[in-house]
Amino acid sequence: MTMPFRAFAALSLLLVPAALPVPLSAQDNAASPAPTPDIPAPRALQAEGETPWLYEGSDVPVDSEWLFGEMENGLRYAVRRNGVPPGQIAVRVRVDAGSLHEEDAEQGFAHLLEHLLFRESKYLGQAEAIAAWQRLGATFGSDANAETSPTHTAYKLDIPDIDDAKLYESFRLLSGMIREPVLSDENVAAERPIVLAEKRERGGAAQRVNDLTRRTFFAGQRLATRNPIGTVETLEAATGEAVQAFYDRWYRPENTVIVVAGDADPMVLAGLVEMWFGDWQGTGEPGVAPDFGDPLAPEGAPVAPGSDLPIGQLAVAVEPDMPRNLTFAVMRPWRRVDDTIVYNEGLLLDILAQSIINRRLETRARAGGSYLYAQVQQDDISRSTDATFVTFAPLSGDWQAALADVRGVIQDAIANPPTQEEIDREAAAFEVAFVNSVEQAPVQSGRDLADNLVNAVDIRETVAAPQVVLDVFRGMKRRLNPEDVHARTRALFEGSVMRSVYVTPAIGEADEAALQLALASEAAADDTARLAGGALSFDDLPPIGTPGTITEQGALGILEVEQVAFDNGVRAILWANDAEPGRVTVRVRFGAGWRAFDADTAVYAPIGEMALVETGLGELGQNELDRLYTGRKLGFDFAIDDAVFTFTAQTRSDDVADQLYLFAAKLGMPRWDADPVIRARAAAELAYNTYATSPGAVLNRDLEYVATGGDPRFATPTPEMLAEVTPEGFREVWEPLLAQGPVELLVFGEFDRDAIVERLRETFGALPERERIDPVIAARVPGAMDASAEPRVLTHRGDANQAAAVIAWPSGGGMASIRESRQLEILVQIFNNRLLDALRERAGASYAPQVWSRWPTDIASGGRVTALAQLEPAFVPIFFAEAERIARDLAANPPTDDEIQRVTEPLGQRIRRASTGNQFWLFNLEGASVDPSRVDKLRTLLSDFSETNPQIMQFLADRYFARRTPLKLAVIPEGQELAKAPPAAPLDASAVQAASGARSAAGAAAIPAGR
């Protein structure tokens, strides 16, 4: 029996219902479900020995865990048993119809149709889909969702706690959505505003750059003029009849693939597919897939020197609030290939060649080059082109120098073979990654497996079991030589045409002629960034110090988790288990977190998040650390939390001892290289102006600062503040922070317990005793909200039809009231459902309004409940009025049992699923070595999130909404004024129409000229 099931069983014993009333809905649901009709045995499964439809033309070994079927109506399917997480199935329905299949007048119809299938269908009335899937335990947006790409539309459903009745019901509802949606004028009119809201929220400078990039790189191809979101004109002209015509052409069984992976008998899953889709027949004449076109050079295009590569379409975008970015691409026609082993060996060589170049480019950037970052990436785009993209960010207006530097590194790779040492280094990383995939195969989730197969269908390739991938890689070692890698490198930069787009904030800095001249100039090979020095060994590194003494060890009091303490005060929580074979998660919690900073030092907090790891340790800079990592899976994520700093890594059982040394050395022997600090400062400076490009960006910049009453620790550093940052100042701030405050380690996963305890003694146990955190620092909490009746207004420099609104109520923090915070989360999700229904489903005013709760556990205050929506400026007062109306109503009138059940079922299922992995336990046991109450309060987590009653919800709404004044924040375009608030009444069509009529006059005129 594997560990996920042991943990799941333990959870059911530990997280017993506490002293909370059982809601009536839970009692009602305990009744016996209606009997489920018999599911017929599948008849369309492909026989053993027959080549599955996915593997036709391929010699890649078939993944025998999948069962493949092809029905008489042309629908193909694949099913498999998978118990990760237990009790869940993942269903994917892929239709081979995306934006590239639309006629000119149908632009956006594939995506609109995706929305309409959730609007109304044979077994679901108008706007009933979200509630229906929630009652089945699925969270809308994560467990029930869909996507539209240029080449396909895919519907994704993850249903937890599955049984025969749920299986039957899920397939019934899904079949009605796919086969018989109600595509009426009424439904199109209801869904159109939601799609237009989604389009509006994607607008602004970044979208203008994306559109220009698409038009330039795919000039002459269908992809250049096909954005899945469509155009305002085609969406506003859409009718039920027109959308039905698109549906009839493309939504047909022969265009559809259904994939199911989950904790059920695959014969039952296959039977359900055939039962609900076997008699499906298309309506009318099927569509004929259009020619997507090839990337071709314009007639008479200049040719880059030293190659036969024509320089084609070029563009320069001037966006004052966007950082400099230059991309050029070598384009080739996309052609379907036979997905053979030899073909995959070639792909692996391509990836290895790119890894070598990218490592050289990164080495050059670290040394203080002319660009912030640079990357080479080959990609097949929408079955339209096979291209090699080169992207980099110049650090200054001298983009020609940055282009020359990047091209110089690439030219060296084209002109000269790599060294065997470089190849071996990248191959070692591949080996570790593929071995890790084999180790993790038993716990690969069903949703990932289903998504992988859908992606394979989309790119017309196969799927391979992790062991097959590893075998292919090990079997091609003969090809991992300088000659073969060099040949694939050269091929990456050969093609039909080169195209480029440069984005700059400065008018007059570049034009197409200058860009063409720069690309047409001959690149001088630069070999200075090549790998120097072989792999390093941890055995050659100095000890952290004198190994410490264990002063305490024993059970933590939950499952088989134990704790160990050392004489220097370091404490560790360990759980050796086989839940995730070969994988270990290590987290180090230390110091004071955000409490450590004040107004004078706050600027160094975000710089530390970017640079602290890369400043090195001991005698090792980042380049030396890269050599140390060769052949190992090591990580080093750093974060600043409310009251602690954290290092986190996912590593392998074979590497966990080295991971512990790495983390301990960062605390015990930090290095202070200057270049990472300078680079982080440059990155922050380049990013700052982007915060003004849209309402969402402004909120990313300012929301935390505003919500904490202007607490200077949470202010995004301005260019003026960043100008004061120095490597010396960085060290002055961070060196004492690495040495102070208690240290707690958590090591969860498959490891040798005794060996790791000894390694802890040699590493963290060998650290000097930590310095005490100053009581003044320890007492710091986030500033209080500055709430007022009138909204605070910020402005952005993006599109004139974009705005955002936030309303937030203060809540609390700390472990003492953690159970109340869990019940508050139920209330918040009810609030979210109501706001989504009001603003999206009934008004079409916002695409995805959200409500969430933040309750810090390491400090006693600072929590809040926040509601946010992006919408048109005229809708901002309507948002505030509707959010406050919902809050008042929840305080005055208890929610219904059905509302509660729609929330508690997904929440409970989310906990049950998460509990099968180590991350769940690690997250919930953080801090338990010094606060044993966390163990006790973990025991009630499931019941706290899944059991309540209407009276508790009303009580919490009164406490947190009715009795507290919220903060209101609006982000509107520059040059506009906030619209007047409407009467406090439920949102209805008249209010929306009134806002729509008032919104235009102030909006259109504010769009900057030239955009």
What portion of residues is helical?
40-55%
CATH architecture of the largest domain: 2-Layer Sandwich
How confident overall, as mean pLDDT? Answer: 93
Specify the structural class. alpha+beta
Query: Taking Cα atoms only, what radius of gyration do you get, to the nearest Å?
Result: 29 Å
Keywords:
4 domains; six-stranded mixed sheet; 1011 residues; disordered N terminus; alpha+beta; seven-stranded mixed sheet; Cytochrome Bc1 Complex, Chain A, domain 1; single chain
Structural commentary:
- The N terminus and C terminus are likely disordered.
- The chain folds into 4 domains: 224 residues, Cytochrome Bc1 Complex, Chain A, domain 1, CATH 3.30.830; 210 residues, 2-Layer Sandwich (Cytochrome Bc1 Complex, Chain A, domain 1), CATH 3.30.830.10; 241 residues, Metalloenzyme, LuxS/M16 peptidase-like (Cytochrome Bc1 Complex, Chain A, domain 1), CATH 3.30.830.10; 215 residues, 2-Layer Sandwich (Cytochrome Bc1 Complex, Chain A, domain 1).
- It is globular.
- It is an alpha+beta fold.
- The strands form 4 sheets. Strands 12-13-14-18-15-17-16 form a 7-stranded mixed beta sheet, sandwiched between helices. The protein has a 6-stranded mixed beta sheet with strand order 1-2-6-3-5-4, sandwiched between helices. Strands 7-11-8-10-9 form a 5-stranded mixed beta sheet, sandwiched between helices.
- The longest helix has 26 residues.
- The chain contains 34 helices and 23 strands.
